[in-house]
Specification:
Number of helices: 1
Number of strands: 11
Strand content: over 45%
Shape: globular
Helix content: 10-25%
Order of helices and strands: HEEEEEEEEEEE
Distance between the termini: 51 Å
Length: 159
C-alpha cells in the first residue's frame, strides 16, 4: 500500500511540474500570442515570432519591432521596424526605418518616403508587456520597390 502511494505522489509531482512548464516560455515568462502581418501587391505575410525592444542607436532613442519565423521553421524571411522614439504615436517618413528580407534572401530597406508610417497604439513597457500597432512602408531592394501595406503587429516587450 505504501509503495503505491509513493508512485502516485511521484506521478502527481511530475504531472504538476510538466503542467507548469507547458505554461511558461523559455525565459520563464508566460507565453504571449504575437504576430506581425502585412500585404504586398500579390501576397499576404504572417510572421509568428515577434519582439519589441527599446534601444539606443548612436545618440537616438529608438524602438525596434521585429518579426520572423522560428529557427526550426522551413519558412524564411524577416522584418525589422525601427522608429525614433518609445511611446504611442504615429511615426512618419525619416522617423521610420524598415528592413525586410523575403523568403529568397533578397533584402529591402525603406528610405524615408513621405507616405511611410508606423503607428504604435499600445506600448506596455513592462517585461513581456504588449506593443501593438499598424504600419505601411515602401521598401526598395535589388529586385525593385514594393509596398508593405495593411501591416499589423502585436509583440511582447523585452525589458
Amino acid at each position: 500500500m505504501k509503495r503505491s502511494q509513493v508512485r502516485i505522489a511521484s506521478l502527481l509531482f511530475v504531472l504538476v511540474l510538466f503542467g507548469v512548464a507547458c505554461k511558461k516560455s523559455g525565459n520563464g515568462n508566460t507565453t504571449f500570442p504575437s504576430s506581425l502581418t502585412f500585404q504586398t501587391t500579390d501576397s499576404s505575410f504572417h510572421f509568428p515570432i515577434t519582439l519589441a525592444a527599446v534601444q539606443e542607436v548612436d545618440t537616438l532613442h529608438t524602438t525596434l519591432i521585429s518579426g520572423g519565423y522560428a529557427d526550426t521553421s522551413s519558412n524564411q524571411g524577416n522584418i525589422s521596424i525601427r522608429v525614433i522614439g518609445d511611446t504611442t504615436s504615429t511615426y512618419k517618413a525619416t522617423a521610420v526605418l524598415v528592413t525586410y528580407v523575403d523568403w529568397a534572401g533578397n533584402s529591402y530597406s525603406s528610405s524615408g518616403d513621405s507616405t511611410d508610417y508606423v503607428t504604435i497604439t499600445k506600448f506596455d513597457k513592462t517585461d513581456n508587456g504588449t506593443v501593438s500597432g499598424s504600419f505601411s512602408v515602401t521598401v526598395t531592394g535589388t529586385l525593385g520597390t514594393i509596398t508593405l501595406s495593411n501591416g499589423q503587429f502585436m509583440a511582447p516587450f523585452l525589458d
